[in-house]
Amino acid sequence: MKTIALKGAPRTELGKKSTKALRNANLVPCVLYGGEKNVHFSVGPQDLKDLIYTDEFRIAGVEVDGQTYNALIKSVDFHPVTDRILHVDLLELVEGQSVKAEIPLRFVGTAKGVRVGGVLMQKIRKVKVQTTPDKLSSFINVDVEALELGKSIRIRDIQVEAGIEIINSGGIPIASVEIPRALRSAEARKVAEDEQ
Hints:
This protein has helices at 16-24, 45-52, 112-115, 181-195, and strands spanning 3-10, 28-33, 39-43, 59-64, 67-78, 85-92, 99-108, 119-122, 126-131, 140-143, 152-154, 165-166, 173-178. It is α+β, with helices and mostly antiparallel strands and 196 residues long. The protein has a six-stranded mixed beta barrel with strand order 1-3-2-6-5-4.
């Protein structure tokens, strides 16, 4: 799993006035919580790009005042019009302490239904898990090899290692093999010819 290094400048003053001054200086105010103490710092928006704009799950290696913390992004506030990053909350990863995180899904293999003309439709891109920091990974692999035409794979079908618990409801479909219209009409024609 990839760790993105963030070098933060400590924030001594908190409140609306100092936050506004930081944003005017093109900096993003951040807070790191979940450890022994909350750490307030600021970074440049370009430092956060590899952490926020990615389809992988990544960890932040935050360095503030010579101290290094491993953390994951909990929430990001964007400007409603410009999409500029306004604020970032990070959760410190403490060894042995379980955390909740959203991990992207990656499909492995080619579904049987796709080989005969079906189309694999992905319904969800990420699942919410609860686990300890040492079990976090960039992706959760989902084997779709046995998936046939018109069938779905659900959250309960995902195989994860011991110590990882998927929080989402087990009945939610994550992918299905749809029958294309052309294939459906060809099937209907074949049935009609067989009946004659």
